Amino acid sequence: MFKTPVTTLKTFLFISLGILIFGDIMVFSAAQVTGLTIGGNSFTISGKQIVLSIVSVAGAWVIAQIPIQNVKKIARIALFLALGFMLLLFPFGVDINGNKNWVSIGPLDFQPSEVAKVLLIIWAAAIIEKNVHNPRQIFFQLSFGFSLVLAIV
Predict the structure, then answer these.
(1) pTM of this prediction?
(2) Residue 112: which of 100, 126, 127 has the closest Cα?
(3) Facing residues of 99 across strands?
């Protein structure tokens, strides 16, 4: 099935776009009645989701253009960046639905834990690459890093 890199790319691209479109349809379907109830139209709530989906596809393309050497440079400080994002909750945390794990900056509401997850994956990949022949070192370093971020949660 995955005989060439292009075949692999096309497969994952179409699967990802399919999941994205399916998710947008589900949000539209679930939010249609609520949008009409609050005096808007069918796209009152799902319109934002669709716009964010389009922006995220563009963002994914931009991120895919980053050279791997630059990603490796980010990996060195990714754990500290993840901790920094999690620490944003203390001064800027907003209570949404009983959870104070959201940060609101202007019109943007986001969960720092989502950014921290991506940064931790980049950091963990660098740790694994660096210590590929030393599983014990991998275990201890990853345990320490994940424990630090988890302590903030």
Answers:
(1) 0.72
(2) 100
(3) 96
